[in-house]
Amino acid sequence: MGKRISKRTAAVLIVMSATLGQTQLNAQPPARGGPPQAPKAAAPIDLTGYWVSVITEDWRYRMVVPAPGDYQGVPMTAEAVKVADAWDPAKDEAAGDQCKSFGAPALLRVPEHLHITWNDDNTLRMDIDAGTQTRLFRFGSAKSSTPEASLQGESTAQWEFQRVNGRPVNGSLRVATTHLRAGYLRKNGVPYSENATLTEYFDLVHERNGDQLMVVTIVVTDPKYLREDFIISSHFKKQADDTGWKPSACSSRW
Fold it and tell me: For residue range 93-125, what is the model confidence (pLDDT) as tens digits?
């Protein structure tokens, strides 16, 4: 069970693969007779607003700290198992590393609320109440002035979409993250290294009852601690307002 994705996400990936030849990567549709639009104006989908986690799978890994040694579903190397077996939350607390399971590769698996806004025309901002974390998704040539390794790393974003009659449709957001500090894929010490990279695909699904869901497909690559890509999906429901928004500190014990 090295790869755990939902049926909905599997369907999304199949559609994405089938239409890849028609997909425009990071190509912002130009205004009629003018230069290409900025990413904010060219967005084929609207991810902004408040979102809450929908947890329908992997409760024992997400709602509580998994039991020591419970690594099911993660394609760990032998070295990764040794690191995880030595996990001690008290040592993390003493070292000030309570946030090691709140890095970008694991952050969207935590029960949480998200607030997504545009920082500027080229940068999406995601604030997360669990652990009080912030991620910035920069499009095109927009770069951070401090690209050193960090919990949330350096994220480059691009829109992916098909064109029908010259208009973008079936859009999604692809985010690639590097320059990560080492951390945990799960709270019981399952590690990812400083060489890990993260690729995420953000898609919107409209339910018949009017609910709007955001499906995030998460792909972690780490030649040191993973035998193959670790692929998983997280789901979020759109909220009308900030109900339930409650910033909290990182913890090694919840």
Answer: 999 999 999 999 999 999 999 999 999 999 999
Whether residue 115 is contained in a domain is answered as yes
* β-pairing verdict for 183-184 and 212-221: unpaired
Q: Does residue 85 lie in a domain region?
A: yes
The answer to whether residue 135 is domain-embedded is: yes
pLDDT band for position 146 (cuts 50, 70, 90): low
Distance CA 135, CA 96 (A): 21
> How many domains does the chain fold into?
1
- β-pair partners for 216: 202, 234
pTM as predicted: 0.86
Residue 155: inside a domain? yes
Domain containing 140 equals 3-24+38-68+75-239
165 sits in the region (left: phi over 0; alpha: psi -120 to 50; else beta) called left
Name which of 210, 242, 253 is nearest 52 in CA terms: 242
